[in-house]
Design brief:
The chain is α/β, with parallel strands linked by helices. The chain has three domains: 5-51, Transferase, Pyrimidine Nucleoside Phosphorylase, Chain A, domain 3 (Up-down Bundle), CATH 1.20.970; 81-313, 3-Layer(aba) Sandwich (Pyrimidine Nucleoside Phosphorylase, Chain A, domain 2), CATH 3.40.1030.10; 329-413, Pyrimidine nucleoside phosphorylase-like, C-terminal domain (Aldehyde Oxidoreductase, domain 3), CATH 3.90.1170. It contains 16 helices and 13 strands. The chain has helices at residues 5-13, 20-32, 37-50, 54-65, 93-102, 122-127, 138-148, 161-171, 179-192, 213-229, 251-262, 268-284, 291-299, 302-313, 346-358, 400-409; strands spanning 81-85, 108-112, 150-154, 197-204, 233-240, 248-249, 329-334, 339-344, 372-375, 382-383, 388-394, 410-413, 422-426. The strands form four sheets. It has a four-stranded mixed beta sheet, sandwiched between helices. Strands 6-9-11-7 form a four-stranded antiparallel beta sheet, with helices on both faces. Strands 10-8-12 form a three-stranded antiparallel beta sheet. The longest helix is centred in the middle third of the chain and has 17 residues, at 213-229. It is globular and about 70 Å long.
């Protein structure tokens, strides 16, 4: 059946629900170019204000999946697991979690994205490794997972064409932060990528798209239900993004922290967080492991060995990954009073890292792999006047204005406060 787009825009504007066939017609037409951007923009804004039912969101997700190729990973033995984060600051989880899970014999076939604005992208971080290639054919991608148990590559242009078009449109029409459109965007890519099971890391707080736990919970529940509705085992974790994750922010800076963690180093709290996520991912593949058993793979070299296998298989070098940053300009941020670190504002720190060169303000911007921020102290730590609490790295001058932004992003108080990484698990 043929519809008129103007009628469908009016229908949603007036708060009515779409039929599955109407959604399929719109999304198919948009992918083919018969529905123009200006009408899809109007529809996105109508959805922003009127929302979508669970049934509409599921139909939208599968309609977007149908606009591209779906990967068939059946040639890879075992339960294939995937992981997705909704984004944040200092989020190097995939770099540690994927090889850690793969070290237990669970195949991890992952397609990742690039960073934009204050959030960092896994692909950008991997490309800071000399020689690392994020592009592979479908056949080579599958072969690598068969041989090494692990691959992290860029998203294929053949997958979910409608999502690429719609995401770019939402980005310039102020319709990014609406739960049905976020959920359908994330899950259409995950479903098309072919994994049997999916762990969703839904970040919440100052440095995340979801600012409060109520919205994050609704988004997580929506995505879990979408995954289950199409036969994918799915678990979501609500994680705290009120401060950057770990100590390092910036591309090679985060590679260094990730590799140090894979070498059995790193803070106990960060190691525990990664192990808890690994425990959930392994459970999706039918393996029940204790936290001590998982941490052992960070200490005995098995997780690092799996990371090195992946890097070598994708053309990268495994030596020199923990060398100090070689930025031309470096600056220390020092405590101006005694007290406890009470806040490290993730959004402000992410924006500052971008200004130093570690991120993109637009998709066309280039990235300085050596730029970044290292947080010497974290929330709850005691500091004294003059202690170095952060270090800035850039290949362009670090101005007084940037130093002021760094100082404003880190707050002190007279009382110690705590920070919990995992806030909730939604199954």
């Amino acid at each position: 059946m043929t519809y008129r787009m103007v009628d469908l825009i009016q229908k949603k504007r007036d708060g009515k629900a779409f039929a599955k066939e109407e959604i399929e017609w719109m999304i198919s037409g948009y992918a083919k170019g018969t529905v123009p951007d200006y009408q899809m923009s109007a529809l996105a804004m109508a959805i922003y204000f009127q929302g979508m039912t669970t049934e509409e969101t599921a139909a939208l997700t599968m309609a977007m999946v149908a606009t591209g190729k779906q990967l068939d990973l059946s040639a890879i033995p075992g339960v294939k697991v995937d992981k997705h984060s909704t984004g944040g600051v200092g989020d190097k989880v995939t770099l540690i979690l994927a090889p850690l899970v793969a070290s237990f014999g669970v195949p991890v076939a992952k397609m990742s994205g690039r960073g934009l604005g204050h959030t960092g992208g896994t692909l950008d971080k991997l490309e800071s490794i000399p020689g690392f290639k994020i592009e592979k054919t479908e056949e080579d991608f599958i072969r690598q997972v068969q041989e090494t148990g692990l691959a992290v590559i860029g998203q294929s242009d053949d997958l979910v064409k409608a999502d690429k078009l719609l995401y770019a449109l939402r980005d310039v029409t102020a319709t990014v932060d609406i739960i049905p459109l976020i959920a359908s965007s994330v899950m259409s890519k995950k479903i098309a990528a072919g994994a049997d099971a999916i762990l969703l890391d839904v970040t919440v707080g100052d440095g995340a798209f979801m600012k409060n736990i109520e919205d994050a919970r609704v988004l997580a529940r929506t995505m879990v239900d979408l995954g289950k509705s199409v036969g994918r085992q799915t678990i979501a974790v609500l994680t705290n993004m009120s401060q950057p994750l770990g100590h390092a922010v910036g591309n090679r800076n985060e590679i260094t922290e990730a590799v140090n963690t894979l070498d059995g180093k790193g803070s106990p709290a960060f190691r525990e967080f990664i192990a808890e996520l690994a425990q959930l991912m392994l459970s999706l593949a039918g393996q029940e492991k204790s936290i001590p058993e998982i941490l052992e793979h960070l200490d005995n070299g098995k997780a690092r060995a799996k990371f090195d296998e992946m890097v070598l298989a994708q053309g990268g070098r495994t030596d020199g990954l923990t060398e100090a940053l070689k930025a031309d300009y470096q600056a220390e941020v020092k405590a101006e009073a005694d007290g406890f670190i009470s806040a490290e504002k993730a959004m402000a720190i992410g924006v500052l890292a971008m200004k130093l060169g570690a991120g993109r303000a637009t998709k066309a911007d280039s990235i300085d792999f050596e730029a970044g921020i290292y947080l010497e102290k974290k929330v709850g730590d005691l500091v004294q006047t003059g202690d170095v609490i952060a270090r800035l790295y850039s290949n362009k001058p670090i101005t007084d204005e940037l130093m002021a932004e760094a100082k404003a992003a880190i707050e002190l108080s007279d009382e110690a406060s705590s920070h919990k990484e995992i806030l909730e698990v939604i199954r």
